[in-house]
Specification:
- This protein is mainly alpha-helical and 139 residues long.
- It has six helices and no strands.
- α1 packs antiparallel against α2.
- Belongs to the membrane magnesium transporter (TC 1.A.67) family.
- It is a multi-pass membrane protein.
- One of its GO terms (cellular component) is EMC complex.
Length: 139
C-alpha cells in the first residue's frame, strides 16, 4: 500500500499545483474573468472578485480528495483503544519485557510510577538541614 499511496499523493500534489497555477493565470486575464455579481449569502470581504472556470474548481476538489485518500492509505495502522488489548500487547511483546535501562522495560508501562520513591518527608529533611547548619561548615 505504501507505493500506491505515494503515487496517489504525488498525483494529487501535481494536480493541486496545476489547479493553483491555472487559477493564478486565470486571475491575471482581465478579459476572460468578468466580475461577479455580489452575493447575498456571503459578506463582501469573502465574495470572490472573479469567476473561476468549472474545470479549475473540479481539478482543485479532485486533487484535495486524492491527497486525503493518499494520506489515509499511507498512515500506519491504528492502535487499539481498549486498555486491556493495548496492555496485553505491550506485556506480551519481547521488546517491552527486556530491561534496557533502569526503570525502562519489564512489560509494565507504568513501572516507573509504581517503583518510584515515596513522598519526601519534608520535616525530616528540614531537621537534617537544621542539624547541618548547627554543626557549621568548617573547611
Amino acid at each position: 500500500m505504501g507505493a500506491i499511496a505515494a503515487l496517489i499523493n504525488l498525483f494529487g500534489g501535481v494536480l493541486l499545483a496545476h489547479a493553483v497555477y491555472s487559477a493564478y493565470e486565470h486571475s491575471l486575464l482581465p478579459t476572460s474573468s468578468l466580475p461577479t455579481k455580489p452575493s447575498t449569502l456571503l459578506p463582501q470581504s469573502l465574495d470572490p472578485k472573479t469567476n473561476l472556470p468549472t474545470d479549475i474548481t473540479l481539478e482543485t476538489l479532485l486533487s484535495a480528495c486524492l491527497l486525503c485518500i493518499g494520506t489515509v492509505l499511507s498512515s500506519p495502522g491504528l492502535k487499539p483503544i481498549q486498555w486491556n488489548v493495548w496492555a496485553g500487547n505491550v506485556e506480551r511483546s519481547l521488546d517491552a519485557r527486556q530491561m534496557k535501562q533502569v526503570g525502562v522495560g519489564g512489560g509494565n508501562p507504568y513501572a516507573g510510577l509504581e517503583e518510584r520513591p515515596g513522598f519526601v518527608d519534608i520535616r525530616a529533611a528540614r531537621r537534617e538541614f537544621g542539624e547541618w547548619v548547627k554543626e557549621g561548615v568548617r573547611p
